[in-house]
Amino acid sequence: MTNKVETLQKKLAEAALGGGQNRIDAQHKKGKLSARERVELLLDEGSFEEIGALVTHRTKDFDMENQIFLGDGVVTGYGTVNGRLIYVFSQDFTVFGGSLSETHAEKICKIMDMAMKTGAPVIGLNDSGGARIQEGVRSLGGYADIFYRNVRASGAIPQISAIMGPCAGGAVYSPAITDFVMMVENTSYMFVTGPNVVKTVTNEEVSSEELGGAMTHATKSGVTHLTSANDFECIQQIKQLLSYIPQNCEETPAKLPYELGDEIREVLETIVPENANQPYDMREVISGICDTESFMEIHKDYAENIVVGFARLAGRSVGIVANQPISLAGVLDIESSKKAARFTRFCDCFNIPLVVLVDVPGFLPGTDQEWKGIITNGAKLLYALSEATVPRVTVITRKAYGGAYDVMNSKHIGADMNFAWPGAEIAVMGAKGASEIIFKKEISEAADPAAKLVEKEAEYAKLFANPYTAAERGFIDEVIEPRFTRRKLIKAFAMLENKVDHLPKKKHGNIPL
Ligand code: HXC
After folding, report:
1. Boundaries of each CoA carboxyltransferase C-terminal domain copy (predicted)?
2. 3-state SS of 186-201?
């Protein structure tokens, strides 16, 4: 028996070394942790249970039968993060560059299937040279097996992808389907075709970093939701993210213990400037409303005219969608609509209530927006919010103009409670634009057209640049003093805790894509 146990121990020690100490050292030299170190850092101490440590590839071509590494380039298993079950796969760059073989894919599929059966998140730590070139189509099949499961799992269990090295070619589509993509700065990149192919096809000269590095995807494409300076920070972000999210679509997020006493926040009285054209940072409103330091912003550097992220209200997890007046006056455009729509849908999938903060002058005009499809893309946000059955509460802090008023979680599209601050302006358009249209004749015929315009603007503003016309119709449930906003929200969400709302029976909706 001693010999048999020794054999086992020897095999496990071999598996633990992946592609060998030299390659692990090389990984460290690049500023990257090894696949196992990442898993250990992510999971609660001692909680990791490995599955498939002794799996090997089945390829014989290209002398592959003489290159066997136990585990075949991916560490898979389960464990806990802050006491809650998760499944994890961590690609091991030290084994054939973390490339995906048929068996490597089978290991990932196995834990995905288990996660679906038991209703727990899957975290993928990606660091791979792509398809295992020696395996050809068997590797492509492996990818497709994963994509298929990503789609089946979407909306049922949370899926988070951290890109901690290369992720190229079709391999990018698994992370793209998952709920959140995070990238480590300077050591990770994602692209469908690399710089060499780009040069051949389009004659563009571009580095890997510029083409598909973390900052590129955080600012330009929006592919990544979060970036981090190194592997340690990336793993911390995964843990933080998980803390707001339930285990699956049947559960609600964990409520943290919270002692009330700070519901009235005077700071909220002074954030919005007197002058309606002066910007302010909506993040100040968010921190004024939420539990102290509970806000985790998602997609921070992309479509900055809308802010989205997770926060807590009296210990309850909420999703925040908020226009941002310091960027493009908080206007809705193609990118911001897509960003907010995707975030809204994530929250709705996983029973996370939504707080929508509104200060929006309307949709961004122009040929660029129209030709790129602001109609279809703006409709995404309208669709996502209308479809959401989670508790939804709106606060209009200042402007709510035009179609954007309807879109930004108005009562008409199913919001549960709609508040407005006393300085709110809820109208079809700004007073100047409106007056120029409806009083055009009167103004042009006046002895002093400029003075007439000012007079008419004031008349229009008095009638509509306030929250009271909307409140009289019941479109606003209550006009509230800013300092009471936090208390109103806490009470509203407590009241809505047992909200039940179902969509009509259907196969699935047809969101404008
Ligand atoms: C097999 C691979 C591999 C791969 C890397 N290796 N990629 N083995 N299949 N795809 C091996 C290398 O041979 C090397 O083995 C080790 O991993 C480390 O690779 P290096 O090149 O030394 O590392 P580095 O210089 O850091 O470069 C990393 C890299 C590069 C940029 C990822 O290896 C690379 O360009 N690889 C090929 C990428 C690629 O074209 N993949 C296929 C994409 S198409 P040794 O033994 O020397 O340590 C694709 C389709 C998916 O993925 C479609 C899904 C639908």
Report:
1. 260-505
2. CCCEEECCCHHHHHHH
Residue nearest to atom 28 of ligand 1 (CA): 129
In angstroms, how far is CA 14 from the centroid of its own chain?
38
Structure tokens at 437: 């249209």
Question: What pTM, to 2 d.p., does this model score?
Answer: 0.95
Using the mean position of ligand 1's atoms as its centre, give its distance from the Cα of residue 168 in Å: 10
Q: What's the CA gap between 344 and 298, in Å, rounded?
A: 12
pLDDT tens, 250-268? 999 999 999 889 999 999 9
Sorted by sequence, the CB contacts under 8 Å of residue 130 that are 6+ apart come out as: 99, 100, 166, 167, 168, 169, 170, 171
Percent residues over pLDDT 90 in the chain: 93
The whole-angstrom separation of Cα 354 and Cα 317 is: 9
Counting DSSP H helices and E strands in the chain, the numbers are 20, 17
Phi, psi of 380 (to 5 degrees): -60, -45
Buried b (16+ CB within 10 A) or exposed e, 329-345: bbbbbbbbbbbbbbbbb
Please report how many Cα atoms fall inside a 13 Å half-sphere around the Cα of residue 117, on the Cβ side: 6
Report the pLDDT value the prediction gives residue 377, as an integer from 0 to 100. Answer: 98
User: Is residue 129 lining ligand 1, measured as CB closer than 6 Å?
Assistant: yes
Which atom of ligand 1 is found nearest the CA of 133?
9
Q: How far is the CA of 130 from the centre of ligand 1 (A)?
A: 6
Spatial contact of 323 and 357, defined as CB atoms under 8 Å apart? yes
> What's the complex ipTM?
0.97
Per the residue annotation, which of 119, 155, 170, 315 is the catalytic one? 170
Q: Dihedral sign for Cα 27, 28, 31, 35, please.
A: positive
Walk across the sheet containing 122-126 and list its strands.
Answer: 49-50, 74-81, 84-91, 122-126, 159-163, 180-184, 226-228
Whether 404 sits among the annotated catalytic residues: the reply is yes
Looking at residues 225-250, what average pLDDT do you find? Answer: 98
Give dist(CA 255, CA 246) in Å, integer. Answer: 10
**Catalytic site includes residue 315:** no
